[in-house]
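QA checklist item 7 of 12: single-chain prediction sanity check.
[x] sequence parsed
[x] length recorded as 166
[x] structure emitted
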Amino acid sequence: MSGLTKEDIGYENGVLGGVVSALKVFAAPGDKVLLHSPTYMGFTNDVLSNGYQIVHSPLIKDENGTWRMDYEDIDKKIKENQIHVAIFCNPHNPTGRVWTKEEITKAMEVYERNNVWVISDEIWSDLMMNDHHYTPTQSVSEWAKQHTAAFYAPSKNFNIAGLIGS
């Protein structure tokens, strides 16, 4: 990604640890956090066990069985619940959906309009199959670059979970 410096990169004890650390920066216990459902159970457990509330914006299967974000629902849930932080999964776990650049851009436009910080789990980014192309969430706009905490780790893709770090 263009403009990334070594000062932009930090260490966390796993992606979920990073998600919780970022939540503690962007939100206070009791705050509501937006997640897409179906939701990775690790997010659910860590968000709830650290005192936050979850608001789901369900993904919808289209006529071809492809999971899609509902941008109107995202916007509505953010406004109704005064949400200022969202957890985004790119590629999405558990559906396996690889978001397109256009889809990520639309989601980030909703988050920008509502001043929502984004915590993005990008742990599956190195594992692309069937000609899918991964787009880093923070790469779609300058706003996304400045308002996304993105987490990567080699543990899943390279089967080295024992290293723990992300």
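[x] summary fact logged: The helical segments are 15-26, 41-49, 71-81, 101-113, 142-147.
[ ] second reviewer sign-off
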